[in-house]
Amino acid sequence: MTRTEDMTEAIPVTAPEESTGDISGDAVEQMLACAHSLREKRIEHAYVFNEHGELLYSLKGERARIRFDHRDLFRLSNTIFMHNHPSGGAFSLADLYVACAFEMTAMIVVTDSFLYTIRPSGAEQYFTRAHYTDIARCFTIRSRMLPLSEQLTVGDSIWYQVARDLDMEFRKYSFGERSGSS
């Protein structure tokens, strides 16, 4: 599966009927509301949740990045980090570096049309610093295998391949068509 359409779960992003792991249905609803609010933002914003999906705090960034002050850095460990990419696209290597450096539970990226999630394999609860070396190496190898024209604008399919190669969980969900009601 290398085509983006094959990886997309073409369902509207809504809360599941039951809880998801350690995250309650109410927490999932709150996370989805935050994700929907990020879709329209034209500069990067982030929401930080604890490992149970409860909102801890939010951050406002710049056009293409979020800067962290020292207080933020101490609070990122063991969290779920959700942020938007206003220009579109899934994860960057910098996103995964942050997830690994702060031993996050999951990284979530929201674009206008999609919600992407990546997390370590089911056997591991958190990303670790050791994961980043493997992620960067696999990303480099996979991106070099792309045609030259695609190496400059790496799509989300590479993250599907990296996650598969490293036994991580990668998901891409479509927000579906915009509507006036939820």
Our count of domains comes out at 1
Class derived from helix and strand content: alpha/beta
Q: Which strand order do you get reading across the main beta sheet?
A: 1-7-6-5-4-2-3
- Unreliable segments of 5+ consecutive residues: 1-20, 178-182
Biggest pleated sheet: 7 strands, mixed
Count of individual beta strands: 7
CA radius of gyration is: 16 Å
Mean pLDDT, to the nearest integer, reads 82
SSE sequence, one letter per element? HEHEEHEHEEHHHE
Termini separation = 31 Å
Structural write-up:
By secondary structure, the protein is an alpha/beta fold. The chain has one domain (4-174). The chain contains seven helices and seven strands, in the order αβαββαβαββαααβ. The chain has helices spanning 4-7, 25-38, 70-75, 93-101, 129-144, 148-151, 157-165, and strands at residues 8-9, 45-50, 55-60, 79-84, 106-110, 114-119, 169-174. Strands 1-7-6-5-4-2-3 form a seven-stranded mixed beta sheet, with helices on both faces. Helix 4 runs antiparallel to helix 5. 27% of the residues are buried.
